[in-house]
Amino acid sequence: MVNLLLSEFKKNKRSKAVYLSGLLVILYLALTVYYTVNTVGLFDNFTYLYKFSLSYMNYLILPIILLSFTTTAFSNEYRSDTIKYLWTIPVSRRKLFFTKCLYILCISFIYMLTVFIVITLAGHFSRFQSSISPGLVFRFFELCLLSSLLIALAILPISIITIFTKGSSVATNLIGSIYIISSFFLMKILQGVSPLASAPHIIWYRNFEGVQNNENVYFMIANVVLVFVLYLMITLNILKRQDL
């Protein structure tokens, strides 16, 4: 599985999506730092800096990036017709599927680690230096780690469209975009229904930063976990029966 995972990174290292996604994240973080550093009197604590950096990152930017990588990762094998050869080597369909899931989790962690490093350094070398403490840095890392895991789990089920349609990236991106946008704008209505709308309530559960969320965290966790488990069961069944 390690070799398969490394091959996923090699296949996408020259992709334009990698550089565009990285540029988008850096641009967003740069604007976040610029805005918060210059808003004296409103954001005067490192807490506000990292809270602000996670806002749109968790709700829109990371989901959109992961949707792009998910669509590409699961559709490439079908479009290039290499999936036939992978399954006749043989490479287990189950192993190939879980490798791609792990790849998306790794991508999610890499981007959130970037957010953590950039924002922590920005806080250290700006007017927020006096308010930084090891406790807050650890708290920020914890939030980034939770975000990378939960947002990835919320986005991965979209790949069932790619697998069911044998590589249709258009349908996956369209439905995935609708899912992300509706989860963002209708979060209060879809919490407990859409994993992407439930994830922020788990991430910020009982937070001291002042983010409003639903206290029924077990219901939110159940939503994310049950949808993901259902996705695994259905997808593995599709792959098992799929005739190439």
Shape: globular
Number of strands: 0
Estimated structural class: mainly alpha
Number of spatially distinct domains: 1
Distance between the termini: 22 Å
Order of helices and strands: HHHHHHHHHHH
Rg is: 19 Å
- Helix percent band: over 70%
Mean pLDDT: 89
Spans of at least 5 consecutive residues with low confidence: none
Account of the protein in words:
With 244 residues, this protein is mainly alpha-helical. The protein has one domain. It is 77% helix and 0% strand. It contains eleven helices and no strands. α2 runs parallel beside α5. It is globular. It starts with a helix and ends with a helix. 36% of the residues are buried.
Quick structural gist:
The protein is mainly α and 244 residues long. It has helices at 2-12, 16-38, 46-79, 83-88, 93-124, 134-155, 159-164, 169-185, 187-190, 195-203, 217-241. The relative contact order is 0.13.
Secondary structure elements and their pairing?
Blueprint: H1 2-12, H2 16-38, H3 46-79, H4 83-88, H5 93-124, H6 134-155, H7 159-164, H8 169-185, H9 187-190, H10 195-203, H11 217-241
Features:
11 helices, 244 residues, mainly alpha
